[in-house]
């Protein structure tokens, strides 16, 4: 298998640039840690992860993992919902973490404006020169020209897990932060290991009239990220994302010949829920596909840190790789939209 | 319109029985209020609404409305997820409210067992003689033979809003509880007003290959209840439930001729999000349908109580009425399942 992997050439992917930009991202560690020092010194009562669409789904892993490993109150909130109903737990001592690659996501910019006006701190992962960057008091701009999700994840993990360290809840942060230097090399190799399968899967299901996607725990956000931001928005493919537990209360009845089920299988305590979906699909002889993160080795990190990078594996394999292979078969340009951001609404 | 309404005969509906069972439900007010007195006297640190599938979606209105109108910490939790990851906020002083019409929903029975073993109070709306009824310390069994959601809602509102009253957060509870005596007569008349439209809508979209449903705020639970429990489980209709805010971050791109959008439009602060979906659909000339709860009068209650009964209007019109009309056209028996509860999984 190793031999095959080494020879694999990824379609639509610039390996050299990927690694080079990854290196550049890693050099920003000290910049992010300076923000950690500042925030930790000031103190904060709770943390809000403010996103919408892709950023909301990307933050979900941190919400899950922080809730699991820390006593801090952390909330993931959709920016439109925050604008509609200002969360009662959001107060002057809160810390708001947000992100927008474009810097002009309307709901987030609107939210950041009133949040900053109320004197609440915002750390934004965005362009310094964009609308969001001009509003937030703390801005971290990624030194890259390409938008791989894992670039954001590495930067955000310096911030979020760095804050847990300062709370005395993640003593091994330094080791973790040292070890994730190898993230991009690992994720490149993992991509190669998955590449032939990405082709096979995309070829099999790209034209299904309706595809069910299940996920859970730290990977529920990734499930939404792939199904909504890639398949719905960028591929116009009809999908039904559903949690592994809710799948059994409605969606299961939709399975029939021609309706594939794609199971995203993680490694946390929710794995048994994913396995239940898998065993059910096997039992009824459904057409199903499993992406089991356990299949993929991530070298150079201690086993205890693995749960923190599992979502990064999924984002590399689905939101990046499988997306590219869908595009091959659908011939639907990933950049083309008919409605989203095409006019005022 | 009144004249037409009065003459309408509801299909597949026994009006007399509906009203009679409604009267029976209302007589249980004092029984539920005795539980309220007991729990309030004992005190509690927070409230968990424990459900799965239908019960989870039915409880969502209470989570939303309690969060809005009370300072008590309230959590809505999926029973399978609770079993997988016991919530850290759940402790000996917590109050758990759950429900299961059958009394044998496996995930809920499993959860109730360990929760009771840990010495935590459970109030269950279920049969006294069923597995859940035998586990919970407090059981409220509805005195009815038919399972209209609003029967549960009235009983649950005596409990939940009764508890808010004891906290000094709902002084007008007595008046509210008096006034909702007219719930069933109101919901019968509202059904009649909607009946011709239920037929028209079902006829138009029952065979769509894929239908998008949006909802928000106090009606997001009802959106899931109708799409998952009725359309997916009982009608095998491919649906895509999505919140009015998330709709704009992926799902909107799926709209094309033949893909209807069904907009559930409520009356709370999220209404503007629903309206945004409606205006978008109008702008792009989509095939869309709006169920606007504001259209329906509910007599005999003070305006300030209306937000509490808006979800009950939706459940009557969609989960009960529109379901019956879908069945007419799909010819798919609402009682038939191929997988759900048909074998071990």
Name some characteristics of this structure:
Rossmann fold, alpha/beta, homodimer, 2 domains, globular, 5-stranded parallel beta sheet, 13 helices
Assembly classification: homodimer
The CATH class of the largest domain in chain A, by name, is Alpha Beta
Query: What is the 3D form of chain A?
Result: globular
By CATH's scheme, which homologous superfamily of the largest domain in chain A applies? Answer: Glucose-6-phosphate isomerase like protein, domain 1
Q: Strand content of the residues of chain A, in percent?
A: 5-15%
User: So, CATH architecture of the largest domain in chain A?
Assistant: 3-Layer(aba) Sandwich
Share of residues in helices of chain A? 40-55%
Lateral strand order in the biggest sheet of chain A: 2-1-3-4-5
Order of helices and strands of chain A: HHHEHEHEHEHEHHHEHEEHEH
User: Averaging pLDDT over every residue of chain A, what do you get?
Assistant: 96
Largest interface: A-B, 53 and 53 residues
Q: How far apart are the first and last residues' alpha carbons of chain A, in Å?
A: 50 Å
Largest pleated sheet of chain A = 5 strands, parallel
Structural class of chain A: alpha/beta
The unreliable regions of chain A are none
Q: Say what the CATH topology of the largest domain in chain A is.
A: Rossmann fold
Count of DSSP-assigned helices of chain A: 13
Q: Could you tell me the number of beta strands of chain A?
A: 9
Number of domains of chain A: 2
Give a description of the structure.
The structure is a homodimer of 345-residue chains. Chain A is an alpha/beta fold. In chain A, the strands form two sheets. The first copy, chain A, has a five-stranded parallel sheet, with helices on both faces. In chain A, strands 7-6-8-9 form a four-stranded parallel sheet, sandwiched between helices. The first copy, chain A, folds into two domains: 15-180, Rossmann fold; 182-330, 3-Layer(aba) Sandwich (Rossmann fold), CATH 3.40.50. The first copy, chain A, has helices at 2-7, 15-26, 29-42, 54-69, 79-84, 106-117, 131-135, 149-166, 173-179, 183-205, 220-232, 271-283, 306-330; strands at residues 47-51, 74-78, 95-100, 121-126, 138-140, 211-215, 239-243, 261-265, 288-292. Helix content of chain A is 49%, strand content 13%. At the A-B interface, helix 4, helix 5, helix 11, strand 7 and helix 12 of A face helix 4, helix 5, helix 11, strand 7 and helix 12 of B.
């Amino acid at each position: 298998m190793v031999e095959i992997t080494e020879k694999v050439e990824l379609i639509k992917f610039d390996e050299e640039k990927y690694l080079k930009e990854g290196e550049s991202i890693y050099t920003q560690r000290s910049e992010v840690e300076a923000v950690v020092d500042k925030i930790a010194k000031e103190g904060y009562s709770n943390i809000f992860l403010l996103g919408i669409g892709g950023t909301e789904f990307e933050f979900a892993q941190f919400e899950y993992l922080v809730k699991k490993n820390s006593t801090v109150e952390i909330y993931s909130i959709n920016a439109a919902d925050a604008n509609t109903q200002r969360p009662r737990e959001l107060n002057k001592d809160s810390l708001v973490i947000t992100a927008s690659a474009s810097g002009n996501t309307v709901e987030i910019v609107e939210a950041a404006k009133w949040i900053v006006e109320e004197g609440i701190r915002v750390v934004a992962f965005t362009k310094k020169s964009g609308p969001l960057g001009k509003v937030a008091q703390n801005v971290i701009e990624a030194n890259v020209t390409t938008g791989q999700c894992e670039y954001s994840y590495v930067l955000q993990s310096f911030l979020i897990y760095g804050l847990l360290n300062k709370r005395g809840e993640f003593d091994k942060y330094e080791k973790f932060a040292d070890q994730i230097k190898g993230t991009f090399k690992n994720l490149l190799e993992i991509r190669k290991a998955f590449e032939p399968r990405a082709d096979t899967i995309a070829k099999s299901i790209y034209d299904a009239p309706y595809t069910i996607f299940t996920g859970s725990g730290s990977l529920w956000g990734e499930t939404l990220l792939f199904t909504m931001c890639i398949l719905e928005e960028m591929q116009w493919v009809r999908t039904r994302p559903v949690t592994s537990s809710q799948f059994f209360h409605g969606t299961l009845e939709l399975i029939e010949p021609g309706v594939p089920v794609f199971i995203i299988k993680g490694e946390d305590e929710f794995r048994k829920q994913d396995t239940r979906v898998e065993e059910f699909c096997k039992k009824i002889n459904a057409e199903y596909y499993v992406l089991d993160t356990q299949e993929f080795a991530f070298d150079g990190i201690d086993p205890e840190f693995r749960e923190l990078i599992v979502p990064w594996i999924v984002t590399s394999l689905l939101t990046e790789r499988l997306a590219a292979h869908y595009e091959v078969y659908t011939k639907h340009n990933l950049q083309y939209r008919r409605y989203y951001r095409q006019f005022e609404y």
